Amino acid sequence: MAFGYGSRSSLVRIKDDFDSDHPSGGYHSRQGLPPQVKSVSLRGRRMYRPTTPWAWAFMVTTIIQALNVLAIELYLFVKFQASLKPDKKPTPLSKSIPTYLTLFIFGFLYQLLLVYDSLRLKNTIQVIGLCIYNLGMLIYASIQYDQIKRAISGLSQQDYIHPSDTVWLDVRPFLLAVPCIIGTFTLAMSLIAWKLYDEFAWTIYKHISADLRMKRRFLTFQIYIALLKFDFFFFLGFTVQFVVIVTGLADTEYALTIAAIPVTVLILTMAGFWTRRENKVGMILTIFLYFCGLGYFTFKLARMYQASHEANYKPIRKSLTSFAVLTIILIILTIINASACTANFGMGLKPHIMKRTIGGEEAAEKDIMTELPDLKHGP
Q1: Which of 111, 120, 185, 217 is an S-S bond match for 48, by CB 3.0 to 4.6 Å?
Q2: CATH code that applies to domain 51-207
Q3: pLDDT tens-digit profile of 109-137?
Q4: Which InterPro entries match (predicted)?
């Protein structure tokens, strides 16, 4: 007490002041200057920017990939549209290629949004999920080559494309390049994701105790929330292709398919809401709806290969099959994780995932709330 400090907490505050860029005590207080505290909260309100080399590397890698693929897809879109005869009416076959390309473009724009979200939240689970997502886009790009080739050949036979047009020869090298580009960047993203895991994992200790069981509950919650974000794209991708291209549907089936889009968005939104609030009734209802969705996609997958309906799906059957299979896998994983999250209700996780903070250091705390715990370090 020789220096006039009233308590140990005052010593801590002095230490914090010396650690800050503009201390609120010492010289500033003696000179009558205001403490420099607001700048911290202002920084917290700015748009997120990566702060580490590996976070920057992941963001830049995905942006470069997106720019390359989007440029190619836009070229393919323009080239194909220019090759069509203007006096022809649209058919499912003529609409298939624009639908492929538009969905591909949306897929990479959505990926960039998820990349930003993952880095902002330091969510390693979502980063790993993005690598798997990229692998799914690689599969789609490989299918796209054969689908577009068949579509151009069929349209040429139907006199939708002039016989002298070299559209296939022009687009073929670019269609081959897309899977190669995505495959290369998938490998790069996976290597960076491994580094990001080491970078993000330790911060969980600021908010979750060293209890290994609590960390596993938090991990289950994080996997579930990440799955919901990926469910959205693959369900939407399947439904858009189905609505735009598939013909011969009954009016009731078509209307139900259209109505399923906003209903699914609502279900996925409420799924996260019920989980954070540990509402068992809401979660039981959500899991029931997941099973309904699983039945729907299984039914659609089987129907595509029935002889009586095969002609309706033929222009886009491979693409629809890939989306249906991936969506079914995601729904099964979502049901498993939703059930595990429900089983964890009432075990102490809710206070950690319900924190709502604003501004400055508190905003940083909110970001940390979606990080992946390092399960290698238990008590």
Answers
A1: 120
A2: 1.20.140
A3: 999 999 999 998 888 889 999 999 999 89
A4: UPF0658_Golgi
